[in-house]
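Q: My labmate handed me this sequence with no annotations at all. I'd like to see what the chain might look like in three dimensions before we decide whether it's worth expressing. Could you predict it?
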Amino acid sequence: MSDTPARHSRRGLIIPFAIVGVLLAVWTGWWFYLAGQIETRLAVQEQALRDDGWGITHQPATVTGWPFRTRVAFPEARITAPSGHGVSASELVAEANAWNPGHWVLIAPDGLTLARPGKGEIAIGGEGARMSVSHLRDRFPDLRAELIRPTFTPLDGAEPFPIASAEHVQFEMRPHLTDGAATTDEVDVLFRLVEARGRPDGPVEGATRSGVLSLELEATVEQASRLRGADSAGVFANWAAADGRFTAVKGRLQAGDSRALIASEALAAREDGRLEGQLALTAERPAAAMAGLAASRSGAVNRMAAAGAAAASGVQGDRPVDLVLRFSEGRTWLGPFALAPAPKLF
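A: Here is what I predict for the chain of 346 residues:
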């Protein structure tokens, strides 16, 4: 009888490694296929935008991130709409999980430069600038953009920007839901500005009396599909021509010691892009903000009218007062006082 020990098969050790190797090879093939698809679709989309009058330039893009992410870097990127509005950055980076290529996050690691037609460029710095977009195959995607502790610096020759800095700026857009389903030509939007400080001698600094401005607004945008067209006047021109409106507007405002709750059934835009409609305000200490506007050195503010509005609203003292802010004839009115031009959408 032999004393030679029995040999044990090593197959049980090899099989798990073989399975991992096969899975890794399959996943690597999927990643490179996805990277190729991204490059192809980007080239097609860029050309389509150029054909529509957009200006898009950047140094050669690179796709990295294997194995779990797809990261597309665009050095020296500049994107300009037909209206002349645009952004540029030393680098724009778009990232998505390789298993969820329908949800992208776009970041500008070194900040952005905002181009305003006829007004010059504004450098946007701070601790972060990012935008995320998902549900790209739906009629309206989900979109969220935010700036973290941004600063706004006019470049040489540019008109001043009302805000010098803020703690946070946020914008969100998603399909409007009716009975749990997005079946309408509407989107819901949210804008949030937190603790913004105005530029020296500007209207924001005046209204806040060198304090901070915080604003939160939400609304439903009708005729949202008309926002997709772009021409020399911008997307809002097509939207306004199709009788687009902001409805169910509500929010809150704090300017220094003055506070207000805001509501409006509907706001629209004139042919010249100026906002039309009215906002109902339940305000606390509005006289302080009006007096600050009257003392500002901004050429856009009617200081005599602001002083009159301050005197009229100051009769209430510290008690809450109901006010109506009207956007009419291209101006912003508080009662009989025309304070400034109405906000301009395009």
